[in-house]
Fold these 3 entries.
Entry 1:
Amino acid sequence: MTASIDRLDWADIAAQLDAEGYAMLPGLLDAEAARDLARRAGNLQTARRTSFASADLGRGERIRFDAELPAPLESWRHALYRPLAVIANRWNAILGIDDRYPADLDDFVRRNRQAGQVRPQSHVNRLGEEDYVALHQCSDDGPVFPMQVVALLSEPGTDFDGGEFVLTERRPRMQTRPMVLPLGLGDAAVIATAARPFKGSRGYYRVNLKHAISRVRRGERVGAELTFHDAR
């Protein structure tokens, strides 16, 4: 899995992130591996199950992992962080932010711990009929990594209808721009966590992003959300 991530076209991924605030990673998992991850995540005894409703984030179940993430999510988290840290540092330079992200995820996680961020945010979500996830950001007061990864572990049109993954982008003095990511079974995408640089007519400025999952009309939608920073 790490080797396949290393073989991705990172110049193209960076260009997509710069232009749209997201980059598609189609077929990062094959169909069997995606369904197997959904099953294993649902059966893990060490997982913590909470509802999106309890955090006023919609309806459905969120499965969190306090221990090591189930394969391949843990290896994804380390392998994807390294090339994304290069893009993140370039974004900071563009925006005039002095802080730089370390090359290794473990070093960044140590920064989180020192800032009091000790609660893992990565999770698998299960949404049944009429469930949805409201617009939100995975941001915090301490060090926040500007990108995260989402993946779909069930098949649109077969396992469920509806449940589209939605990004919104708010630029100053402009209407909010909605984007629907065309995720299929086993597809993943890198998305901006909360903000990204945008090049306007007078140079670069920061734009604000949120993400959501639209209402599931039929069946069950299973997805994963991989976050590099922890929460307080």
Entry 2:
Amino acid sequence: MINTIILDIGNVLAGFDYRAYLKDKGFSGDMLERLCRATVENGLWREIDRSASEMMDESLVAKFMAFDPEIAGAIRDFMFSTYEIAKEYGYAPGFVKSLKRNGYKVYLLSNYGKANFKYAKDNFDFFNYVDGGVISYETGFVKPEAGIYKAIIHKYDIKPQEAVFLDDVEANVLAASALGFHTIHFKNLDQAIEELKHLGVKIDYKQV
């Protein structure tokens, strides 16, 4: 019987549309593409999510700037404002509260560097209702690396066969499944709720 729900944050409980954010800042065309390639779409990005630094790591930012030196200034400005990208979904607090109301433990499992995570925790309402979680910077592992899943299993004594993990990235879902979790590849809230119900999870949340 399922007694635990584990939720990713980005694109599950909070939007992470970095392209829309950059467009709002006035970037477009080739400049937009170069900024994306040099930052969020750069394989180095996962090192941001490992970072346990209270502030954005200057030495790490320098590595991103070196990826495209011609736009180094824009890269630096963007890296020091990335905490602004994620926006809490309106449904997030009610969705979590519905799961809690029906008796489930609710935990977070998300890739986040410490500097950016502090902003999220201080500003997103759903944090008031979850039972805890494991964030990548705390462990040194990032999804889909097995270590981060093992960290949450050990921290809360979770039995994977009694838990459901929801994430918008297929590789992360597959990694959790390999460790025995029930999984849902999150595409939108209605789809996720239907799949939760199919797994026998009781949930009474309805979007307004």
Entry 3:
Amino acid sequence: MATDLNDLQAFMAVARAGGFREAARVTAGSASVLSEAIRRLETQLGVRLFNRTTRSVALTEAGASLLARLGPALGEVEASLDVVNGFRDRPAGTLRLNVPISASRLVLPKIVPGFLAAYPAIRLEVIAEENFVDLLTASCDAGIRYDERLEQDMIAVPIGPRVQRFTTSASPAYLDRHGRPQHPRDLLGHACVRGRFPSGVMTPWEFERDGEVVRVDPTGPLVVSIGGGVDLAVDAAIAGVGILWLFEDWVRPHFESGALEPVLEPWWQEFSGPFLYYPGRRLVPAPLRAFIDYIKSATPRSAPSPDPALRADLPIEGR
């Protein structure tokens, strides 16, 4: 069956965007052209791929099955065609990254402007979300995650700061009213601002001092979604709602301004920085190779790695 590759790409665009208008915006195309491509593809395949109403577009079971198989396949086609990029003076094309919102806020701003200036023919797309996705199915070239979230058969490259810390903090007014905790277990008697992952998990707060690790599961009046709700959590802590547990880099400006006061600082736990990861069983597209080379030059070589299996460009074993 001879199927137009452009129609398949139109299907992928609409499926990923969740609608024709958004897909047209992302692809700088026309919603009517995309709609005609989908009708043509459905006619050729003899099945409906989307259920359409005046307000929504959703994949059918057949469409979802096609998406699951087509994403990786088109990714391989694009990677194969990208081989010609090696013959260019400068790499060109699109690089799609899937990253947690913390990385889009704390890691990428120090990297992206310089990278785009160095490679003006590359277009960077960043999808920021907390869900851990299958890169090939999502048609992403690479992702950023921490080592405990990485999977087997991935290549990991250090990106950004190699050591980070979780901090606890609160507004001075809150601490003046309720007292300053001296031990992590004291948090059980305080109002705390909690975060919940999209999976529904609320991880306990972890502290460490002189080899002693303490985990507590405090409660409080506010729970936000990790990622999109973090700015609300910070604003609430500044307003005196309760004690916050968050990346040090995220709240450091508020320490400097005095809006937030560090709490239990001797107990703040260090953890290893994030990694850029990508599948090890496919050709590396030229834009991704350029990005890898760029972050390698920007990451200190002397920085410690938490696990010898996570050295740059080595597969992760047993994860």
